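Supplementary Note 3. Input sequence used for the single-chain structure prediction.
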Amino acid sequence: MFIYLSKKIAIPNNTRLRCVSWNKDQGYIACGGEDGLLKVLKLDIAAGKDGKVKGLAAPSNLSMNQTLEGHSGAVQVLTWNDSFQKLTTSDQYGLIIVWMLYKGSWYEEMINNRNKSVVRSMKWNAEGQKICIVYEDGAVIVGSVDGNRIWGKELKGLQLSTVEWSPDGKILLFGMTNGDVQIYDNTGNLISKLQIYCLTNVTGAVHISGIEWYNGDYGYVEPNCPSLAICFDNGRMQIMRTENDENPILVDTCMQVMNIGWNHNGGVIAVSGSQKASSQDKDVNIVQFYTPFGEHLRTLKVPGKQIFSCSWEGGSLRIALAVDSFIYFANIRPDYKWGYCSNTVVYAFTKPERTEHCVIFWDIKNGERYIKYVKNLLSITAHGDYCCLATRTDDTSGQVSSFDINKGNDKYFYE
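The predicted structure, written as discrete structure tokens, is reproduced below.
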């Protein structure tokens, strides 16, 4: 995996940002900040003079730069409903606005304010039919996409900081300001307290920086892959297979964490925040990238005083970072599983409906394609007439599959 900063957009009047979120389907980028700042941007690839520069490397221009008026306080929370093309935002005074796209511009559709507390988190379920809103004073509201209230509840004596839906929409996870996480059903009934393993032997107050549950829309990198990440501001994180996982992946990022986010297929989680520089007294903004199994992939250093938020593009080839009064963009080059041998390109990817990797053997001379499904694929390498696939087996002994691609384009499989 290779990542590098590629673009920087300045916010007018040096207004500091608080949050940024990338619409995964349509590509709109929403950013909120102080003094009621709310903007929706869109980056499109510019038609440059050099036709050789294509894809991510090509220059990009703002095709939309709309300022949305309606908030007076700092915009602290925003979330996209990709399915219905809606944007929901909230400011420091508890005002919630739902925005809709009409004839190429964003307009205010609905507005709500309890006038009692501040909104700490808002999340749409995977289908985009329901939104859960949590207030710091313990109030929870679940509403429908058309603006109707489905149910509400006061969690007495609790202060809420974040919320997350399960992929099937049957469970809600509520994060508290004291670091506890509680499990509720989707009608507001308490099920149990979620066990936190990553804070063992940690003393002092901790706060939840993020709870992110990948919904499986693009399949999983392998069967039974961890997909529920819970991260704290002290850098400790646990990644679970289910809400009751007793053996989660434990990670110490060794940084002060602001927020976290999964990429589009749950294969990489980004952790943004700051870290003490070894040779300097000041903190350095960084984004660290991990696999669902806790393997560290890459660290990206980011300029500026304080990073507040990060958000992935829909295809996970770019990431947006809210830093001070700027949005930084970084391009990402993933480590693809592929090889080339005997005029044949061999490459692998995952499908939502399959637990195995789909491996394609594409003969570039005659255009024919052969498909093989491989479970727990780790790597592909090729040379000459041979292609080698490494997989992880259930007994952890490992397995190597070799494919001989001869001149007649027949494929012989050895194990």
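The two ends are 29 Å apart (CA to CA). The CA atoms of residues 12 and 325 lie 8 Å apart.
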